[in-house]
């Protein structure tokens, strides 16, 4: 499954990819696996799985709170990798992107992390505080295991940096739709589409849009030019609001995902 | 030792393997703009002249190098000199940096100032310069710290700042820093973020050091005037490490001058309840730079403990990490009870009440003096005054005031 992410995104036949984000171990460790399968059943093309971290600087309050709760219940990097491993026992076709921050990985060691992530079945990583300038070491290890590193491009990223990022990125480019943290409001969809169009002229890689996408309407609005849409905080809120049992969470997650999938497919 | 220390960080903001720009892409634009503006003004004569003028007239510099005669006699060892940063406007070295950064903010045309604070000293120092410049000021502070530092919160409000309570994570300094970063990302166009210590992504460690280096430059001159030579050793407390970096940096090429950074040993390293990142943490990435970080087995950043709120930070400036590994500076620890004892000793012996942060440096300075000969001289950075800690000391000793 080495190039699973690239294959998946190139075999969409003009369909827009839907990439839900969830925090591993939230709301409790037992629910992560059922939620992941539920996301796939309801139209997820790729899953972005958050590795809980104590100091998630680029995330908003919703994902921060989910991380805190996950950590409190014992989910860290090791447990997250174990969840991916278990997911892969029954699903070998849905790409998994691990999203998180460097410190837990530094603590484990780059080499050990990449080796274990590859063995668990992770296809790519998105490390928020590891920009291209600081990624040389981990890139060496990732490449040795055929794993891809995804990078963010922000509305404020200069043309020069965009080029730098596109040169080292693999899998897809993640375009940050707003100036702010994950889950913030005020999407200017025209500006997003304009920026994504320009970005696609710079890179052959697919472009995903995230931060601030919360429902079918906003997903459709930012998907005009993009290849994929990432939804995180809104999904975490749905999980948060559901009653504290697996059935209820899965039902709510399904109901949240289906209209977004349908709306993207109608484009 | 053949390393060159005075040309760090390198062009990419690294001090050896430490420092750097481990920031989210959403922050890069701010950091690049800040870096460009700082590099330009660092060598701009008008800017430096204005900075110097403000340090003289607003802060009250130079601060004296005071000979602690009775303390020296008591230790029966090396001569102890105190660099009196406690006499600065607002009562600590923190103002050196905020005076510098606010000038930079003005030069960059920013209208809105944000800052993080733990004990409230940096928040007060920021609110002070923002008031002087007539700029809007928002200070992020952990909910736990707001509770502990009510007087500083009120001081900031009197100065016209808005204090925003941070309820995430451990609700202390590190979380306030996260929140300030988030604010900055969302308001990049009009906002300047004044970080209070030599941590954070480049160029902050370099910039905050440079603005505090006036401390070491003055000590050099004052040592020549009063001792006739450079001192044998420098001692300063280290949380993030801005007062220590400010004292050390101008001496960094003078290999005959020993340097000691004093970390908060809290209740003892063996208890795990301390804030000694270099002595007991491991290399990691926090708040945009690679450095020593206090984290658990899983790499989660852990809560730290110190009697002094200003040292209660789970990271340390990357340049200190570098100075430690290269052997140029030595990092030691002083526990809560030793710091408290030194607080009392200095107060009673010299009539100077030190901040609990600075009391860590005093405690180590006394030990060090004892181990040296009477011909030697050490300079201890008295980074702040102790008025703010009177309630803490009273609480610990069961006195109601």
UniProtKB/TrEMBL annotation, chain A:
<feature type="active site" description="Proton acceptor">
    <location>
        <position position="48"/>
    </location>
</feature>
<dbReference type="InterPro" id="IPR002028">
    <property type="entry name" value="Trp_synthase_suA"/>
</dbReference>
<dbReference type="GO" id="GO:0004834">
    <property type="term" value="F:tryptophan synthase activity"/>
</dbReference>
<dbReference type="GO" id="GO:0005829">
    <property type="term" value="C:cytosol"/>
</dbReference>
<dbReference type="Pfam" id="PF00290">
    <property type="entry name" value="Trp_syntA"/>
</dbReference>
<comment type="subunit">
    <text>Tetramer of two alpha and two beta chains.</text>
</comment>
<keyword id="KW-0057">Aromatic amino acid biosynthesis</keyword>
<comment type="function">
    <text>The alpha subunit is responsible for the aldol cleavage of indoleglycerol phosphate to indole and glyceraldehyde 3-phosphate.</text>
</comment>
<keyword id="KW-0028">Amino-acid biosynthesis</keyword>
<protein>
    <recommendedName>
        <fullName>Tryptophan synthase alpha chain</fullName>
        <ecNumber>4.2.1.20</ecNumber>
    </recommendedName>
</protein>
<dbReference type="InterPro" id="IPR011060">
    <property type="entry name" value="RibuloseP-bd_barrel"/>
</dbReference>
<dbReference type="InterPro" id="IPR018204">
    <property type="entry name" value="Trp_synthase_alpha_AS"/>
</dbReference>
<comment type="similarity">
    <text>Belongs to the TrpA family.</text>
</comment>
<dbReference type="InterPro" id="IPR013785">
    <property type="entry name" value="Aldolase_TIM"/>
</dbReference>
<feature type="active site" description="Proton acceptor">
    <location>
        <position position="59"/>
    </location>
</feature>
<comment type="pathway">
    <text>Amino-acid biosynthesis; L-tryptophan biosynthesis; L-tryptophan from chorismate: step 5/5.</text>
</comment>
<keyword id="KW-0822">Tryptophan biosynthesis</keyword>
<keyword id="KW-0456">Lyase</keyword>
TrEMBL record, chain B:
<comment type="pathway">
    <text>Amino-acid biosynthesis; L-tryptophan biosynthesis; L-tryptophan from chorismate: step 5/5.</text>
</comment>
<dbReference type="GO" id="GO:0005737">
    <property type="term" value="C:cytoplasm"/>
</dbReference>
<dbReference type="InterPro" id="IPR006654">
    <property type="entry name" value="Trp_synth_beta"/>
</dbReference>
<dbReference type="InterPro" id="IPR001926">
    <property type="entry name" value="TrpB-like_PALP"/>
</dbReference>
<comment type="similarity">
    <text>Belongs to the TrpB family.</text>
</comment>
<dbReference type="InterPro" id="IPR036052">
    <property type="entry name" value="TrpB-like_PALP_sf"/>
</dbReference>
<keyword id="KW-0456">Lyase</keyword>
<feature type="domain" description="Tryptophan synthase beta chain-like PALP">
    <location>
        <begin position="60"/>
        <end position="384"/>
    </location>
</feature>
<keyword id="KW-0663">Pyridoxal phosphate</keyword>
<dbReference type="Pfam" id="PF00291">
    <property type="entry name" value="PALP"/>
</dbReference>
<comment type="function">
    <text>The beta subunit is responsible for the synthesis of L-tryptophan from indole and L-serine.</text>
</comment>
<dbReference type="GO" id="GO:0004834">
    <property type="term" value="F:tryptophan synthase activity"/>
</dbReference>
<protein>
    <recommendedName>
        <fullName>Tryptophan synthase beta chain</fullName>
        <ecNumber>4.2.1.20</ecNumber>
    </recommendedName>
</protein>
<comment type="subunit">
    <text>Tetramer of two alpha and two beta chains.</text>
</comment>
<keyword id="KW-0057">Aromatic amino acid biosynthesis</keyword>
<keyword id="KW-0028">Amino-acid biosynthesis</keyword>
<keyword id="KW-0822">Tryptophan biosynthesis</keyword>
<feature type="modified residue" description="N6-(pyridoxal phosphate)lysine">
    <location>
        <position position="94"/>
    </location>
</feature>
<dbReference type="InterPro" id="IPR023026">
    <property type="entry name" value="Trp_synth_beta/beta-like"/>
</dbReference>
<dbReference type="InterPro" id="IPR006653">
    <property type="entry name" value="Trp_synth_b_CS"/>
</dbReference>
